[in-house]
Amino acid sequence: MAQAVIVDVVRTAVGKGKPGGALSGTHPVELLAHVLRSLVERNNLDPVLVDDVIGGCVQQVGEQALNISRSALLSAGFPDSVPATTIDRQCGSSQQAAHFAAQGVIAGAYDIVIACGVESMSRLPMGTSSIGQDSFGPGVAARYPEGLVNQGISAELIAAKWSFDRDAVDAYSARSHQRAAAAIAAGNFDREIAPITVTNADGEQVVHGVDETVRASTTVEALAGLRPSFRTDEYAARFPEAQWLITPGNSSPFTDGASAVLIMSEEAATKLGLTPRARFHSFAVAGDDPLFMLTAPIPATHKVLAKSGLSIDDIDSYEVNEAFAPVPMMWAEEFGADEAKLNPWGGAIALGHALGSSGTRLLSTLVSTLEATGGRYGLQTMCEGAGMANATVIERL
User: Fold this and answer.
1) Whether 353 is catalytic
2) Which one of the listed residues 91, 99, 116, 281 is annotated catalytic?
3) Is 57 a catalytic residue?
């Protein structure tokens, strides 16, 4: 059976996902094209050798419609012969792309494949693809007659179920910014970031190479002054247990970004004289209650640990997407995880959550973290819309 190895990882620095953000003037096709081009150039790889490009994107409408992965590889100068597809597993779309890519290598269907993802939330805000539409249909409505809820409400329900208070979620969030700021200052992200030339709000050409959403000065005291975002009279009556503590400060900000991972069989890497940085060890995907929505990283992690034969103590670094602070907090409590290993360079609360890009963005940072610390095993998991999660274990080589 072939081994699927990670030869390289690359991403843009994230930009604020609103008009005026660093990447807001750049078409999402060009964001993804930039990381695809950077990946093959960094490794002196002839793109004609790429068997497939599998991309993740959530808002597949407008500028992100019509298979954005194919448009991006054409823009990047790849030969016409290279195919591509774009998938949607909500927030985990590009993590799922990495699973499909690696599993294709292991199955012998691919020798060389790129997994990637992109989202421009400044140009296509979350929810754009379903505006004015019934996205669930009558069967789902009948199954959940009281109605499903948005992710912010799900985060409130998790905080209540796990008894997290406002001070705890704000303290976690402040730490995310502090860790990310320290990582930037130390140059930890330099290898994974491919700086991109963009046009700023003044019409000038500038190079964007530092994550825009990190606030080194964030404190618990400052976060405490923010008002809850999701409380309504209707939800307050329906969920009396909720404490109403989710704010913009303890949630991931909307961001723009793209990321990509070069995946090969070990044999292909050897033939090309490329040195793999890590290998895929184990995979899992799971579903959970769509009302709580964000809890599936727990069953997904149980599944991937069982498949891997490893325990949580064997894992040297964990990347658990910080969609909202209660998500990694509940995960850490469930597994008795060492918090020093949890998102050690900060997470999405600081670094943002460019939906379709986040899976391969987390994978980029996980590879970098293992190399920086000398760790062997890394675990990545992230909550996804409608109550799903992917989990991945990699091994540094």
Assistant:
1) yes
2) 91
3) no
